[in-house]
Amino acid sequence: MTTTTGTQDDARTAALRSAVRDLMPRAKSDLTELVSYKSVYDPRQFPIEECHQAAQWVADAFIAEGLTDAALHETPDGSMAVIAHHPAPPGAPTILLYCHYDVQPPLGDDAWHTPVWELTEKNGRWYGRGSADCKGNIVTHLTALRALRQVHGDNLPVGLVLVAEGSEEQGTGGLEEFVPKNVDLLRADTLLICDCGNFAVGVPTFTQTLRGNVNVLVTVETLSGPLHSGMFGGAAPDALAAMIQLLSTLRDEHGNTTVDGLRNDQVWDGHEYPADQFRTDASALDGVDLLGSGKVADMLWARPALTVLGMDVPAVVGSSAAIQPRTRARLNLRIPPGIKPDDALKSLTSHLESHTPWHAKVTIETEATGSPFVGSTDGPARRAMEDAFAAAYGRPATTEGQGGSIPLCNVFADTYPDAEIMLMGVEEPKCLIHAPNESVDPTEIEHMALAEALFLASYRNA
After folding, report:
1. Which range of residues forms the domain containing residue 247?
2. Which residues, other chains included, contact 94 with Cβ-Cβ below 8 Å and sequence gap of 6+?
3. What pLDDT score was predicted for residue 7?
4. What is the per-residue pLDDT across 309-345, written as a single tens digit (0 to 9) for each?
5. Are residues 380 and 436 in the same domain?
6. Is pLDDT at 368 greater than 80 in this prediction?
7. Of 53, 144, 164, 239, which has the highest C-beta tally within 10 A?
8. Catalytic residue among 30, 168, 298, 427
């Protein structure tokens, strides 16, 4: 990989490993400050000033680590992206380090076992909203740069572009629109998208694929108003019953997604996900079957998956003996690489229209679409990162897919077609990102920071 000797490599690894280990108390202090910012980019829920304060904290932190021209750039959705640089030495590549400082809302303070906005150590993990997704990755970048500066001095061996997004969780596309209009500002040879995670704690993992998505709102109408179920039930068309029957056509008895026109027999050819481990990671109840006729990895990463995200129905408490005239559901269809979102949308729309019972009136609105993504599988940067992972973790890296989507990845790929793009991070399954009781394992921050530092130190010689 490099022109240095094995002895020199070992010495560099040992020096960086020691530096990262010594920096972990500071990493915890940094994450404590970051988690305290309620940086949900939604003024309906939290003051937008919290996002601005978090953004400024990120800018100041990277300025302190030698990056220049760190500034808050307003993107088309109004959010602020933090962008900073370190110029590349002659002949050296430039690496883009991606992260985001905005977070998901807490989803109910009463569901948390620790304070939502206070980093709290419990059973060896650090709890708090954003501790993993994605403020843990911000701290990982900082720790890697600090270790590099301690070992190599201020003259970093590669160029850097730091990009910290401010509205990733809201999906409003601010940075996605910003990138094509600022090509030179963000130009890099390799992009590290640090908003993913390992297969498990201690297992270095490249997230190789991302599923795309199609979100639709489905409205079913049958009556001009509600009717008494005693007087009209049995003959009057029930919108809620129609919706239930319609949604039932989207899964078979085994739980496979069954959208007319979409294949559901694809096979994942990478790392397997043992069913017992998945049951534990997913907190599946004893005796409840996992879904699908394929292996877990097939169902998660290779096949389409339809989820009902929400429905407008009367709550049990306060409901009356009435037939519902209208109901609405929000559907999310995840699609693997090989399926275009426009084709998936057409298939889903056609399926819903053709399977609506009793000639009920159905309206389908497209809420959002996103394309699947496949990261770089080979190249000098990939090989250098594989070596860095192996040195940091003491074991070879593996690959996995991810059910989530990061639309920005496709924008980066289209804008910089010659760049290598790799997805990684600290967000392993036990982190419970997007859910109550989000946490991060500090050893993941430590090992990922070491891997990143080793990569940045060695890639110029790859």
Report:
1. 212-266+303-370
2. 88, 158, 159, 160, 161, 187, 188, 189, 190
3. 55
4. 999 999 999 999 999 999 999 999 999 999 999 999 9
5. yes
6. yes
7. 164
8. 168
Q: How many residues does the chain have?
A: 462
Q: Is the pLDDT of residue 8 over 90?
A: no
> In sequence order, which residues have a C-beta less than 8 Å from that of residue 66 and are 6 or more positions away?
86, 145, 149, 154, 156
Q: Are residues 144 and 162 in the same domain?
A: yes
Considering 370, 393, 411, which residue would you say is the last residue of a domain? 370
Contact 275, 282 (CB under 8 A): no
The neighbouring-strand residues paired with 234 are none
102 catalytic? Reply is: yes
Question: Is pLDDT above 50 for 214?
Answer: yes
Three-state helix/strand/coil letters over 410-440: HHHHHHCCCCEEEEECCCCHHHCCCCCCCEE
Shared domain for 331 and 397, answered yes or no, is: no
Residue with tokens 């019953």: 241
The residue among 142, 20, 97, 81 whose CA lies nearest residue 424 is: 97
pLDDT at 6: 52
Asked if 272 is an active-site residue, the reply is no
Give a yes or no: residue 279 inside a domain.
no
pTM recorded for the entire structure = 0.86
Does residue 134 have a cis bond before it (omega within 30 degrees)? yes
* The pLDDT of residue 2: 42
- Least Cα distance to 198 among 396, 405, 454 occurs for 396
Q: Exactly one of 50, 102, 427, 446 is catalytic; name it.
A: 102
What CATH number corresponds to the domain at position 149? Answer: 3.40.630.10
Alpha carbons 116 and 131: distance in angstroms, whole number: 10
